[in-house]
Design a protein that fits this description.
alpha+beta, 2 domains, 2 helices
Length: about 120
């Protein structure tokens, strides 16, 4: 009885090992075949676009500059293409500063100023 049990376990282990080894080699062979089917393509990153805004009529030229001007500072904070963009900037940051000014770049004229005290 013990002998039959030992032989049964031995045969079961041998069958299990045989099935495991065969499935390993079949799976390895399938993997190698699928790797060969994939074409080897070298993908390069795109080249950076080099253009000047004045070369392209679809790109708006900066027209207005927003400056902060007080006794300590006098610097350009932002340069925008439209008055609407400049007003949006003033609307967003004007509540924190009363010394923001919008100038027309071409004429150097003051267009608008923020004043939170008004």
């Amino acid at each position: 009885m013990r002998r039959n049990l030992f032989i049964g376990i031995l045969v079961s282990v041998m069958v299990y090992m045989t099935v495991t080894v065969i499935s390993f080699f079949l799976e390895k062979q399938e993997t190698e075949e699928t790797i060969e089917l994939i074409p080897q393509i070298l993908i390069l990153p795109p080249e950076p676009l080099e253009f000047h805004p004045l070369d392209n009529p679809n790109i708006a030229e900066p027209t207005f500059q927003i400056k902060i001007q007080n006794e300590i500072e006098d610097e350009v904070l932002e340069v925008v293409a439209t008055l609407a963009d400049a007003k949006e900037y003033i609307k967003e940051y004007g509540e924190y500063h009363d010394d923001l000014y919008i100038y027309n770049i071409r004429t150097k004229e003051l267009v608008l100023k923020s004043n939170k005290n008004d």
